Amino acid sequence: MTKPTLTLDEIRKNVSRVDSELLALLAERRQLSIEVAKSKIQTEKPVRDPAREKILLEKLVTAGKKHELDAPYIVSIFHSIIEDSVLIQQAFLQKLANPDSAQPIARVSFLGPKGSYSYLAAKHFFSRKQTTLAELPCKSFKEVVEIVENGRADYGVLPIENTSSGSINDVYDQLQHTRLSIVGEITQPIEHCILTAVDTDLENIDCLYSHPQPYQQCSEYLRSLGDVKQEYCSSTAEAMQKVAEMKSGNVAAIGNASSGALYGLKPLKANIANQQENHTRFILVARNPVDVTDLIPAKTTFIMSTAQDAGSLVECLLVFRNHGINMTKLESRPVLGNPWEEMFYVDVEGNMSSEEMQKVLEELTSLTRYIKVLGCYPIENVSPTEIELD
Amino acid sequence: MTKPTLTLDEIRKNVSRVDSELLALLAERRQLSIEVAKSKIQTEKPVRDPAREKILLEKLVTAGKKHELDAPYIVSIFHSIIEDSVLIQQAFLQKLANPDSAQPIARVSFLGPKGSYSYLAAKHFFSRKQTTLAELPCKSFKEVVEIVENGRADYGVLPIENTSSGSINDVYDQLQHTRLSIVGEITQPIEHCILTAVDTDLENIDCLYSHPQPYQQCSEYLRSLGDVKQEYCSSTAEAMQKVAEMKSGNVAAIGNASSGALYGLKPLKANIANQQENHTRFILVARNPVDVTDLIPAKTTFIMSTAQDAGSLVECLLVFRNHGINMTKLESRPVLGNPWEEMFYVDVEGNMSSEEMQKVLEELTSLTRYIKVLGCYPIENVSPTEIELD
């Protein structure tokens, strides 16, 4: 029972064959997703159909049992496949709805250098959109916005919200003063590792390089290392660059493993953040707004300032509730130069082209001193359809 | 270009065929993983080989490009496939190393009722172990431990750590007084949803049912709902039971969607927790310790109390560092009835059967007043191998 019937070489050849066949099937299924999207244009049915997805998953779990595959494994694989199918359909339909914005090359500005989390978010956003990136790393969020405003970039990528450190205030302040529109969003996992340029052991590391935020987000693990010096850098990518140049077994950078690979660094220890899961939500800004087809879910971001009495914000929020519009984020920011006024940023699930949302905007306009739609864009977060695993 | 070449019915038939072929390949790949595990017994090589995994992923990304599949998608699917392969090999090798504990039916105690997060963790843990569960829901952590101690259950499942609410103190106190061993661990995602018994809208809900912890973990979203009454229950599963019985469009439970399905509830709104990702780590306890084969990574949990001077804990932690042993968790708990003493719980990456760990135990014994190995068990958390996505 414990003797292998094949040699390791034969087993590996079989694994390679199986993997090639898996890739071909994943590609075929993607093509079929595009066909589904085309048929949805004809029938005007939404891309997602949770009831159908549920039946599909249940059928797969039943079929999987015959192969002795357990339900959690099948569900996890097919959640990824369904997510891909939804995103591919969304990208296809959005391209049709916005023919002008479909360019083969997109010039994208982000807080650099190459390898930063903003860079990874930009790559991730365009990965399913068949677009080549022209990368424009910037030195500040202000520059990211400015070079889109002046036409040197088509898109700017900005971090807007982090699960462990909260909102990125700087970016909110930029949004208050730009004419750019939000045209997309992407959620990027932030995975901090200890990265080194040469093979070494943890006990040899006596100096770390990173941006202040990762130090804060990994404080518990770093405490366990004891007496290790911390050098501050302007970004995690800069820290990686430095450690790569030193080529020493006594120094390490904290940052993302796949960025580290860009600088030839290898992870010595993965997942060192206090919170096991850490995500940053990024937005994409462009000079012109996009149309979101009503076959896919949309999000709208408002900025508004209300009258100066306590109940007026609640009045505004009731408008959303009364129209059955779900709010996904509320953030308040002081108005620079006017300490008595507050600006509110509100994200809701809804498409500005719908009658309901037009009514909401009308009612809000009469309740606020100032209101602006910062953008209406596709929701890229595909929440998985759950089934009973019993 | 936008007209589908197939009817929707034909497209769906093709999708079904592709999905069946995918399942068959996933099953074949699993069988090959067992063959790999058998050959590793012969060659005494560890189950994981990150360098090989990296080459494999890079090859797949290159091959995927020919199919117009993007790298992040391929990497995400194959991270799941590799994780499954590692866990299947670990389960196979552990079964060989512990022939006595390999029963076709495992009697498992957990904090109930059926549908609780402890129940989901138990199902998840045994899903790859070809074991049928005899479920023994309990009313307290104390009862979970007791019925394993008195032989009515083979395993007990206990939550030990939560990303958003920290350690579960009650369970640590139980561990201090039991002779049971920790024989396994499992990390379970905690996904809170608004669940209802009938189709309804969010604005109709005027009363929620849940355990105090989910209310706390979803506080931000709940604030956005405004004036909704909150009823407290002893568990999320009890809340679901109540809401299921009421069959009303005005009430909802907060809890896991797949547990909700057990009670016929449907998610009205998913992912409502403040933190997008929320995990609980569970441990499995049994009357006898397990042996962990040295082909797979092991974790060891110690409990110890040190002399009452400030430097003595640091002395102990230096023992781990000096032997290059990585600490993954440190938790202190007061000793009941003795306010001047503290107990420390320490998790480290290491196998008690190794020479290094035996030396560590020896040194710690001379430095502490009291020390006990609570258990040595396989690490079930398969950290993904990262590659450069450029």
UniProtKB/TrEMBL annotation, chains A, B:
It is found in: Cytoplasm. InterPro entries: ACT-like_dom_sf, ACT_dom, Chor_mutase/pphenate_deHydtase, Chorismate_II_sf, CM_dom_sf, CM_II_prokaryot, CM_P_1, Preph_deHydtase. Residues 2-93 form the Chorismate mutase domain. GO terms for cellular component: cytoplasm. GO terms for molecular function: chorismate mutase activity; prephenate dehydratase activity. Its EC number is 4.2.1.51, 5.4.99.5. The record marks T280 as: Essential for prephenate dehydratase activity. Residues 301-378 form the ACT domain. It catalyses: chorismate = prephenate; prephenate + H(+) = 3-phenylpyruvate + CO2 + H2O. Pathway: Amino-acid biosynthesis; L-phenylalanine biosynthesis; phenylpyruvate from prephenate: step 1/1; Metabolic intermediate biosynthesis; prephenate biosynthesis; prephenate from chorismate: step 1/1. Substrate binds at R12, R29, K40, D49, E53, S85, Q89. GO terms for biological process: chorismate metabolic process; L-phenylalanine biosynthetic process. Keywords: Amino-acid biosynthesis, Aromatic amino acid biosynthesis, Cytoplasm, Isomerase, Lyase, Multifunctional enzyme, Phenylalanine biosynthesis. Residues 107-287 form the Prephenate dehydratase domain. PANTHER family: PREPHENATE DEHYDRATASE P PROTEIN, PREPHENATE DEHYDRATASE-RELATED. Catalyzes the Claisen rearrangement of chorismate to prephenate and the decarboxylation/dehydration of prephenate to phenylpyruvate. This is Bifunctional chorismate mutase/prephenate dehydratase. The gene is pheA.
